[in-house]
Amino acid sequence: MNNVNEQHGIFRSSLGPSQILVAGFLMVILVATVLLMLPISSQSGQTTGFIDALFTSTSAVCVTGLVVVNTLEYWSLFGKIVILFCIQIGGLGFMSLVSMIFVFMGKKITLKNRLLMQEAFSFNTTAGIVRFAKAVVQLTFLVEGIGAILLSLVFIPEHGLIKGIGYSIFHAISAFCNAGFDLVGSNSLVPYVGNGIINFTIMGLIIASGLGFSVWIDTYNIIKMKRQSAEHFTWKQAFYKLSLHTKLVWTITIILIVIGFVFFFLVEYNNPATLGALSLKDKIYAALFQSVAPRTAGFNTLPLAELTPASQLMSVILMFIGGSPAGTAGGVKTVTIGVLVLCALSTIKGRENTVVYKRRIPMAVIARALTVVIIAIVVVLGTLMILTVTEDAAFMELLFEVVSAFGTVGSTLGITTSLTPIGKIIIIMLMFIGRLGTITIAVALMVRQGKTKEKHIIQYPEEKVLVG
Amino acid sequence: MNNVNEQHGIFRSSLGPSQILVAGFLMVILVATVLLMLPISSQSGQTTGFIDALFTSTSAVCVTGLVVVNTLEYWSLFGKIVILFCIQIGGLGFMSLVSMIFVFMGKKITLKNRLLMQEAFSFNTTAGIVRFAKAVVQLTFLVEGIGAILLSLVFIPEHGLIKGIGYSIFHAISAFCNAGFDLVGSNSLVPYVGNGIINFTIMGLIIASGLGFSVWIDTYNIIKMKRQSAEHFTWKQAFYKLSLHTKLVWTITIILIVIGFVFFFLVEYNNPATLGALSLKDKIYAALFQSVAPRTAGFNTLPLAELTPASQLMSVILMFIGGSPAGTAGGVKTVTIGVLVLCALSTIKGRENTVVYKRRIPMAVIARALTVVIIAIVVVLGTLMILTVTEDAAFMELLFEVVSAFGTVGSTLGITTSLTPIGKIIIIMLMFIGRLGTITIAVALMVRQGKTKEKHIIQYPEEKVLVG
Ligand SMILES: [K+]
Ligand SMILES: [K+]
């Protein structure tokens, strides 16, 4: 009976943190949709259709970046500001905004609100969550501010003071929130493929937010400790003092960036439509950017439709993996894939346990990672099949679009604007599921695993089966 | 140090059963390649090129069924007999042939030969393996014989007595061994789309061998017990008396066939190039056949290239899953996928253990299943990327070809004959890895997990990480 109660508990309608989070996101999306439909939001002064407005607001709030209309040309200044607000709310997590308001108003934060924030950040403990949320908000504005200043070195000379500052702020927020919206034109950041400031500022912002806030705070604390501590310890020792989560995030992120860079550099080297025409410096910039961007950024400096199919497939794989947990990134997350690969490597080595950095990863975590990936594969393949029926596009274009939407990446091979209404609705749902699904599923699983008392349930005998 | 020894042990060169199995298959392939290169093997009486002969013999021995030349038109009677021998040797497992020779010669089977057979059948225990192997060989010839008699009802009227019997034997062996070679022409069994005898005989043979021998023997024993037992028990009780492995194989196989049937029936219903033009009876036949065939059969009664992209994708998924362990089927196997899905379902229900049919599935088995699938995904995606560079074909055509080769299915969207030499070599390697890789990897993992004494190794503390 206990088990039955648990099952209903997770789907209890009114008060679960997951439901409030979902409802909150829905509310923001709907308000933004109405605002974007108003004539004041478009350059032409005309009313925007419901589906296109819903698509844009969902894409912004879910920090995806797929667009059915050209952001620069279609939306008015008011419309652009609405989009920017959606991005900032979605990226920072609107729960942290709620908590910030609570904190700044000096109100004592309630346990329920703590739980909400815990869910928004996939944070493990309620202890110190308020301090954590404050740090997150401060850090976000600080990093976005630095990014905007760096970008303004390019945008102010190009667009004048006022417009230049606006552009800089827009792109800094868009990059840090992993939104991928841009005001450059119809092909993302392709015009800036060789621009060092744009490249490294945007990449820095993408990587920073893609790592997840807790990783930054953990790393910062260890570096501070190393400096202030009386006893001397080496960098390697310092690295080991990081939490296992932080160690894994750094390791996997660096491995993925290096693999992606080498892959794109070699495969695209002679492609005249992409790297082939560029200087060696620009080739390196572009390959690196293409490797970093699928960490759910949604920006690109190479024309994606011109990439070789191998590079497009590699981009799809990187987009599916996405960024790291507890940040603004989407995808099934680096650590999720990392945990599964580590389990496989341990099995190949004949180990009973999954061991990394002298720590055992609990089986419950591996089961959770497996569950997240299986759900993601089912969602991606299911929607992909529907789209192959409703849309008139090549298979790779649809695969790219679906994984991009689910991973809240926002890159496209160019079919977004010509989607059918059914296709648009499916992509809207995918963006929403991609942004909130993995978080809520992961949290729901964690809560259940924590609550269920297996000892109350009959312990069945083990029996082996053959696999492979 | 113990661990280090284990690691070297698995790759020890000369005497491991896995190595002998691989070497044996390689030898058969090379002998067949030489025979097929001879002028006597081709209709035209000309020498066949090394790569095409190697491709054909690998495809036959690995019971894949992909062909670079039309089997009916290109090969002479001698060549066809060589191919048929390759299929029978590859399908039955040449190890069981070796054991059969031993048994029939009345020699006492050595422990080493038992281990070899154990590997060939993924069998869990050495006890009774000789009896098991004998049963396998008898069963194979019995079922192939019945299949040939049924097929002759169609083929003798069509081709006369001698040729009709030859056709019946060829297709019965090809179907039961999951080889997918046919003598009908260039488009598999498409001309027989509405022929009841051909459809149900071939499907029966495919399903029978796809279930795996141990499942048949287990099921047969329980049915016999139910009949002969003094105490009466229901069919449900009888089902529960089956081993967990057998229960899972039956359940998953039936689920996959039903899902596939409903999917193809609905999605292709109005496709004029496939089901659209057929009568309702033929529609049902064709949808069912298309659902059964990806269990690594390699036959098709619908023109695969004309299927909708959604159906092609569904076929790819079914081909990747493949048949059940310890039979002639390929793919990552039904039980492998089943175990992972069950783990996810248990996790969603908040259970600590993976439970099905009142039995716990050991974590070691789940880890092994995960490892097999991850290796399969890496192999498929890696070779797919290479082929997108070397071949001039659509992405779906290449994806279909790669999964078909790896899963030893042998279906194609039509690009096999026009592969480049590099493409042919990659597909040859894929067929070989697909046939032997999963078996040897799974066995190697089982051996290692069995041997490693984790208690001798430092037990590291657990630490959780965030996933999803
Ligand atoms: K994005
Ligand atoms: K086959």
Properties at a glance:
homodimer; 468 residues; mainly alpha; 19 helices; 2 strands; globular; disordered N terminus; binds potassium ion
Structure description:
Two copies of one chain form a homodimer. The first copy, chain A, has 468 residues and is mostly helical. Helix content of chain A is 66%, strand content 1%. Residues 1-15 and 98-107 of chain A have low confidence and may be disordered. The relative contact order of chain A is 0.11. The longest helix of chain A has 31 residues, at 129-159. Chain A has one domain. At the A-B interface, helix 1, helix 13, helix 15, helix 16 and strand 2 of A face helix 1, helix 13, helix 15, helix 16 and strand 2 of B. The site of one potassium ion has 12 residues of chain B, from loops. Residues 63-65, 178-180, 296-298, 408-410 of chain B line the site of one potassium ion.
Order of helices and strands of chain A: HHHHHHHHHHHHHHHHEEHHH
Count of helix runs of chain A: 19
Quickly give the structural class of chain A.
mainly alpha
Which quaternary structure do these chains form?
homodimer
Question: Which small molecules are bound?
Answer: potassium ion
Beta-strand residue percentage of chain A: under 5%
Largest interface: A-B, 87 and 87 residues
**Which regions of chain A contain 5 or more consecutive residues with pLDDT less than 50?**
1-15, 98-107
Transmembrane segments (chains A, B): 20-38, 50-69, 81-103, 139-157, 196-217, 248-267, 316-345, 365-389, 425-447
GO cellular component, one term (chains A, B): plasma membrane
InterPro entries (chains A, B): Cat_transpt, TrkH
Subcellular location (chains A, B): Cell membrane
